[in-house]
Write a structure and sequence with these properties.
This is Transposase-associated domain-containing protein. InterPro entries: Transpos_assoc. By secondary structure, this protein is mainly alpha-helical. The protein has helices spanning about 20-35, 60-70, 85-90, 105-115, 120-130; strands spanning about 45, 55. The protein has a two-stranded antiparallel ribbon with strand order 1-2. Helix 1 (about 20-35) runs antiparallel to helix 2. The chain is elongated, with a radius of gyration of 20 Å. The termini are far apart.
């Protein structure tokens, strides 16, 4: 996989047309993501600015979204598409700080819930408290 992802920042030319670099980059991204998808229908997460890797779509729809909306800023390590920080670090082009790590979205949501509500133990304490005193 080519390590240069500068195409992600060059979507339009001076005439507001999609650049050839961007089209080639999107094609490379789609090939990369489809080769690593675990979806039985061949769908992949859409990294456009509207979907934010939340929605799973067919590759042709992802291409259209990337042309319309652009790719998420800073999504240079394609972690939602099977790429690890380590594989990017080997090329020296990762923009992720060494002290940071990508987290699975489910794990991230669980962590946020625990931070907001004080963890699972507090839930048990609420159940054990009398409703009226």
């Amino acid at each position: 996989m080519a390590s240069d992802r500068s195409w992600m920042n060059r979507r339009f030319d001076a005439n507001k047309k999609i650049t050839d670099d961007y089209k080639i980059g999107v094609e490379d991204f789609i090939r990369y993501a489809v080769a690593r998808t675990e979806d039985s229908k061949g769908r992949i997460r859409c990294p456009c600015t509207e979907c934010g890797n939340y929605y799973i779509k067919y590759p042709d729809d992802v291409i259209l979204d990337l042309y319309r909306h652009g790719i998420m800023p800073g999504y240079t390590t394609w972690s939602s598409h099977g790429e690890s920080d380590r594989s990017r670090d080997d090329t020296g082009t990762s923009s992720i700080n060494d002290n940071q790590s990508e987290m699975d979205p489910v794990e991230q949501n669980q962590l946020l819930l625990e931070m907001d509500f004080g963890g699972e133990d507090d839930d048990m304490n609420l159940v054990q408290c009398p409703l009226y005193e």
